[in-house]
Amino acid sequence: MTTWAGAIIETAGMAEFTSVASKCGVIAEPTKARWVLAECAENADRFAPRHLARKLSRELGATVIAFFVRTTESVEEIEQWERGELRRSLAYSENAGGWISDRGEPQAWEADFFEDAAARDDGEWPTSKRGSIAPFRRLCAQLDVDPDHPTARVVARRDSAYWLVVAASLSLVAATVVLGFLH
What we know:
Largest sheet: 8 strands, mixed
Strand content: 25-35%
Strand order of the largest sheet: 2-8-3-1-4-5-6-7
Radius of gyration: 20 Å
Order of helices and strands: EHEEHEEEEHHHEH
């Protein structure tokens, strides 16, 4: 696996979870589990989980942890959103010199996410196994979701701006063809 992107979504057993999630572009199986893993397509850009997490956390009034990891480039990003507000953001890029973003207060899940969390307590940022999926698998285990069997998937959705650009492009092509026939 070279790229893994998705979100771990707090459902708190909400009966309306699947319908709210589908409005946000997530197809999920009905569940009573507290957390659900939603996986993005392999070709997802690094911003897809972030936009999804912000929207879902706001719509559900819950916590969503978005992640993006690309092992071939040793890049990883993780964000925690609560009720539409960003609470924590971490980003690592080996090519950019290591940790490039650390916003918000440390969260309880970080103890398992960082295998060498003790080093962090001494003011050092952990660097072992960065850019791998291991920390994300540990986070999944901590929240009791199976990283090998996501119970939800993110479907590509186009917003209205996308469709306006498509319509304008098609109109331009049609107008060019019509004008070509008239001359």
